[in-house]
């Protein structure tokens, strides 16, 4: 499994975005915050609920300076077909990466080899291309965009405020902590 602060490994792939096919590589993840959001497959059951939730919250991610890259082992042609036929997936404005060879899924260590699909994995990448948050769930457990937004806000806050950390359940605007000897045993 990749570790926190590990750099994203090189990749280049086809993607579907905004009605077009494009090329995307790890270089596209640098210079901004990014969420790489793996899901098992197009035309399934839990996946469209997650991807629609991201689509419904995409403007909030954009306001935070975050680009979303959804990834499955399907081809970019399949992403387009799903986008064109599913009302939920039709809402998507973010980039849908194709990973038919499993390279990206293996780079992030979420490939289920015997199934040829990715686990549900979420990775928050900072502007330097380093992983700052990792979540992997089982196939039957969907993820929440609202919870992810809170993780993004906390990671961005910590990145821009050296020496401060965000406690559990922290929300933007709430008090943070400055780790020091005088806090030990007092929390």
UniProtKB/TrEMBL annotation:
Subcellular location: Cytoplasm
Catalytically driven reaction(s): a hydroperoxide + NADH + H(+) = an alcohol + NAD(+) + H2O
Domain Thioredoxin: 2-157
Entries under InterPro entries matching the protein: AhpC (IPR017559), AhpC/TSA (IPR000866), Peroxiredoxin (IPR050217), Peroxiredoxin_AhpC-typ (IPR024706), Peroxiredoxin_C (IPR019479), Thioredoxin-like_sf (IPR036249), Thioredoxin_domain (IPR013766)
GO molecular function terms attached to this record: NADH-dependent peroxiredoxin activity
Main location, first listed in the record: cytoplasm
Keyword list, A-Z: Antioxidant, Cytoplasm, Disulfide bond, Oxidoreductase, Peroxidase, Redox-active center
Pfam families per record: 1-cysPrx_C, AhpC-TSA
UniProt EC number: 1.11.1.26
Job of this protein: Thiol-specific peroxidase that catalyzes the reduction of hydrogen peroxide and organic hydroperoxides to water and alcohols, respectively. Plays a role in cell protection against oxidative stress by detoxifying peroxides.
Subunit description: Homodimer; disulfide-linked, upon oxidation. 5 homodimers assemble to form a ring-like decamer.
Similarity field: Belongs to the peroxiredoxin family. AhpC/Prx1 subfamily.
Stated name of the protein: Alkyl hydroperoxide reductase C
Lineage: Bacteria, Pseudomonadati, Pseudomonadota, Alphaproteobacteria, Acetobacterales
Gene label: ahpC
């Amino acid at each position: 499994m990749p570790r926190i602060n590990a750099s994203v490994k090189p990749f280049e792939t086809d993607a579907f975005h905004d009605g077009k096919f494009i090329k995307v590589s790890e270089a596209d993840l640098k210079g901004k915050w990014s969420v790489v959001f793996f899901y098992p497959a197009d035309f399934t059951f839990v996946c469209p609920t997650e991807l629609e939730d991201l689509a419904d919250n995409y403007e909030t991610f954009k306001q935070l300076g975050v680009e979303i890259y959804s990834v499955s082992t399907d081809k970019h042609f399949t992403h387009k077909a799903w986008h064109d036929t599913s009302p939920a997936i039709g809402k998507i404005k973010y980039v849908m990466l194709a990973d038919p060879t499993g390279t990206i899924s293996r780079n992030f260590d979420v490939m289920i080899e015997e199934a040829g699909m990715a686990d549900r994995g979420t990775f928050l990448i900072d502007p330097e291309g380093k992983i700052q948050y990792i979540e992997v769930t089982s196939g039957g457990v969907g993820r929440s965009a609202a919870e992810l937004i809170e993780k993004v806000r906390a990671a961005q806050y910590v990145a821009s405020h050296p020496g401060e950390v965000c406690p559990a359940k922290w929300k933007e605007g709430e008090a943070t902590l400055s780790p020091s000897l005088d806090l030990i045993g007092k929390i």
